[in-house]
Write a structure and sequence with these properties.
It contains eight helices and 16 strands. Helix 2 packs parallel to helix 3. It has one domain: Ribonuclease Z/Hydroxyacylglutathione hydrolase-like (Metallo-beta-lactamase, Chain A, 4-Layer Sandwich). It is globular, with a radius of gyration of 18 Å. The strands form two sheets. Strands 1, 2, 3, 4, 5, 6, 7, 15 and 16 form a nine-stranded mixed β-sheet that branches. Strands 8-9-10-11-12-13-14 form a seven-stranded mixed β-sheet. The protein is of the alpha/beta class. The longest helix is centred in the middle third of the chain and has 15 residues.
């Protein structure tokens, strides 16, 4: 079986962002990127997705988190609470910005910091035996046939203060010689640092993930340094349509030269890797905005 990448549609009844990507690997294991918000039922949909594509207990070879915002780590928390004993997680990968969480109070859903605090508590209670990797810029990891290269972490920016989006860990994944750029929610500062020394890597990425769901995100200059044939948009359909005219999105859609633009809000997408534009399998849209 070839490696397959899925871009999952999320239920965005309560939030207009979030992203969830799943690699189904040649040996049947999975590699997950982020996973989405803590919308009710999202954990069930992710588990059902995994269990329907494997025999026996799903094995998650790695779970990578780009940064510590609710719409990127929230579903992991509730997923592990409910299904931690029904799956095997072999490693977790994240490099979150330092934060003093000792004074954070209130419900775990009340703020990004409260969710981040609960994330760490969940690791202690439910994932004590799962290896945790803290990626550093320049690191390379091999998980099955997936090669992960770390291009940028918050450590490259600190102690300079910035929005949490710019603390996103930026990676590439390479499968069958095809490189995908994962920007998370990276914005201006991350874009600047990436352009300082990663231009050769950027131009070799055939598939890119649009930063920050197509809101204000990575710079036009960063996208111009890439040469993708496919662009992944982790965005609700209405937001994608509404944000098309912004200068950066207009550039991505009209001037970047990509043949394929795949929006999560229009339904799950299945990409067989290496991917050729126009060959994605699409599932019907499930959720109304």
């Amino acid at each position: 079986m070839s490696t397959t990448l899925y871009q999952l549609e999320l239920d965005q009844a309560h939030i207009d962002c979030g992203m969830s990507y799943v690699f189904h690997m040649e040996d049947g294991r999975f590699f997950i990127i982020d996973g989405g918000y803590f919308t009710e039922g999202e954990q069930d949909r992710l588990y059902d997705f995994l269990i329907s594509r494997c025999e026996g207990k799903p094995v998650i070879a790695g779970w990578f988190f780009s940064h510590a915002h609710q719409d990127h780590i929230g579903n992991f928390i509730q997923f592990v609470w409910k299904y931690g004993n029904d799956v095997t997680i072999q490693k977790l990968l994240f490099h979150f910005h330092p934060a003093d969480l000792s004074q954070v109070t209130g419900d775990w859903k009340s703020s990004d910091d409260a969710t981040m605090k609960e994330f760490y508590h969940t690791l202690e209670e439910y994932c004590r035996d799962v290896p945790v990797i803290t990626p550093q810029t320049g690191d390379r990891y091999q998980i099955g046939e997936i090669t992960i290269d770390v291009l940028y972490t918050c450590a490259d920016l600190l102690p300079t203060t910035s929005c949490v989006n710019d603390y996103s860990t930026v990676i590439t994944t390479t499968v069958a010689g095809q490189k995908i750029l994962w920007l998370g929610d990276a914005e201006t500062q991350a874009s600047r640092i990436l352009l300082e020394g990663k231009q050769d890597i950027l131009k070799s990425c055939e598939i890119i993930q649009v930063a920050h769901h197509g809101f204000n995100g990575a710079t036009r200059e960063l996208y111009a340094a890439t040469h993708p044939h496919t662009v992944l948009w982790p965005s609700p359909a209405p937001n994608f349509e509404q944000n098309k005219p912004t200068p950066v999105n207009h550039f991505i859609l009209n001037d970047l030269g990509a043949a394929d633009h795949i929006v999560s809000g229009y339904g799950d997408a299945e990409l067989s890797l290496p991917y050729s534009p126009g060959t994605a399998k699409r599932s019907p849209k499930r959720f109304q905005p």
